[in-house]
Design goal:
The chain is mostly helical. It has three helices and no strands.
């Protein structure tokens, strides 16, 4: 739950700063959110007494997760943009 709150807060901050480049913001949030989620999960597991090698966690879990999230973010962005345009159409200029 903490990692999702981290991603939401990050999205809100980036939306205010680079709102004119939504694709760049989406890729930035995807990249930083995946890394942040992995770090938070690793810290929680370490505090629970489960010791995992950091190199293995990032090499076997985080990097493939970033790649998969980036690949899935592209069609998701396109679909959500179309849905947003359908739900909130731009006003017609006369």
């Amino acid at each position: 739950m903490l990692s999702y709150l981290f991603v939401i807060a990050l999205a809100q901050v980036l939306q205010r700063r680079i709102w004119q480049a939504p694709l760049l913001a989406m890729f930035s949030i995807t990249f930083l959110g995946t890394i942040g989620s992995s770090v938070i999960s690793l810290v929680v597991l370490q505090l629970s007494g489960i010791s995992l090698p950091i190199a293995d966690v990032f090499g076997l879990l985080t990097l493939p997760g970033i790649l998969l999230n980036m690949l899935l973010a592209i069609p998701t962005f396109a679909v959500m943009r179309d849905v947003a345009r359908w739900v909130y159409p731009a006003p017609e200029v006369e």
